[in-house]
Amino acid sequence: MWRRTYLLLLLIRVYFALSPSYLHPDENFQGPEVFGGRIFSYPSKLPWEFTTDLPIRSVFPLWPTYEVPMSLLQWFYTEIGQGSPPPQFVYYALRGVMFLLSFVLEDWAIYELVPSPRHRRATVVLVASSYVTWTYQTHTFSNSLETLLVAWGLVLIRRIVENKHSSFFSYAVLSFISVAGVFNRITFPAFLLFPGLQLLPYFKRRPTSLLAFLGFGLLFTSIAIFIDTSFYRPSTSFLDIIRNPIITPLNNILYNSDSTNLATHGLHPHHQHFVANLFQLLGPAYIAMILSLFSWPIVPSWMRNTRALSAVSATVLLSIFPHQEPRFLIPCVPLLLSCVRMHRSRIFLATWIIFNAVMGFLMGVYHQGGVVPAQLAMRSIVESNTMAQGIKSHPDATVFWWKTYSPPHWLLGPQQGNHTGSIDTMDLMGLPGLEMIQQLDSVVPRCPYSSPIYLVAPTSATFLDTYVSSSSLSSPHTPNLQLYRLWSYRKHLNLDDLDFGDDGGLNTLNRVVGRRGLGVWSVRRACK
């Protein structure tokens, strides 16, 4: 039974890994976007974390995760004489890499971390049934990598503590995990700080082990600093790297230590992680854990292990900082679920299945689900519209994105010969509707020329209804600009467009859910 259930959940994980939902801009702009322009010469726009004078993101953990598979794809297509691979193939290949990392490393680590053979299979199945495993862990997040590094850091700590004759290979692997974790995200030490205290008695008895661990750590840190400095200063010499290195974790700490910097990303109450974020990630499992706390003075069973210590202590430490997002706690999900023992309850199973099914489709299919398909189809949309308007040349096109997440530029792929001009992407984010129209009005040329200006926006935006093309262009109420829909994608929900204050609860849901979708419009003037 456990095996069949696990195989079914594995197929579900594959389905969500190949579903183009878009959970957060960081999953593209802090990973594939960085290397898409360098390896394939795709259009790319590096985020500010990589362009500031003191860069705060390291490429050391990104190199094996994204650059190596993308470079292999480029090499393969070059060998067969096809130039660069299509961006959609690269996109789904990276999703496949994240799926394999989750399937192999996460499940294996959880299997090792649960000491009881009786609970191991049930625990692996429970973790595999979480929507966080289906969605976040199969997306190209630094938080997803952090989850794997935290889990295997705990595995290595346990192996070293329980094995009195650990090899130097174990120290080397734990050092690499520690360095890669810190350079990946500065929140990583919060998860291993207290569990790592178990190593102190061991290192006290075996000082050579401590020296080996620190020696390997120094080696991997030097390599990481060298890679980062070479990336940000390609022409620098080896001596310059030694004299003036770029230490991205240090820059990250200095940046996040300034509350004014955090305010630009949004400030949250210190209890946000415990009150809202963990519940959003764990649902009924979190409620069951909270209810077990009322058994004091008896310590709940789920709190009596290193996994719970890692998750709870990290949540406490991360709650000190006022900027708190649910994805920061993704490493806690498999750790806490591995502590749950009430999953045989029918009520728990029913609520657990419903919760993860709803959240899985919401976050794994519909959440900003049209952004990636629209960007992948943009060149063909522009080419088809140019031909339909009878324009023989292929002018450059400007595409305005409104009320969506920032579109990944690298998904446009290479310009295909003379079939299309270049595509300029303009991100208007959540600009008010009238200001958005003013932006369009300032760039759409006068009649009778039809300019290749496009607008990508959610179909739930009722503000656009006034401007959508109708058959009565001679009406005195016809606006100056007209929108002609060229393409649409139904599986798209814009949760940032919820406006319960102005529209009311029912009207807002009818609009956002009932009119769900993402559209691409050609913007033209209402010429007579």
From TrEMBL:
Pathways per UniProt: Glycolipid biosynthesis; glycosylphosphatidylinositol-anchor biosynthesis
This enzyme's EC code(s): 2.4.1.-
Endpoints of the signal sequence: 1-17
Cellular component per GO, a single term: endoplasmic reticulum membrane
Membrane topology: Multi-pass membrane protein
Keywords carried by this UniProt record: Endoplasmic reticulum, Glycosyltransferase, GPI-anchor biosynthesis, Membrane, Signal, Transferase, Transmembrane, Transmembrane helix
Tree of life domain: Eukaryota
UniProt entry tagged with the keyword GTP-binding: no
Residue ranges the record marks as coiled coil: none
Subcellular location, record wording: Endoplasmic reticulum membrane
GO molecular function: alpha-1,2-mannosyltransferase activity
InterPro entries assigned to the protein according to its UniProt record, in alphabetical order: GPI_mannosylTrfase
GO BP annotations listed: GPI anchor biosynthetic process
Transmembrane segments: 208-227, 274-296, 347-366
PANTHER family: GLYCOSYLTRANSFERASE, GPI MANNOSYLTRANSFERASE 4
Family the entry assigns: Belongs to the glycosyltransferase 22 family. PIGZ subfamily.
Protein name, entry field: Mannosyltransferase
Organism: Penicillium angulare
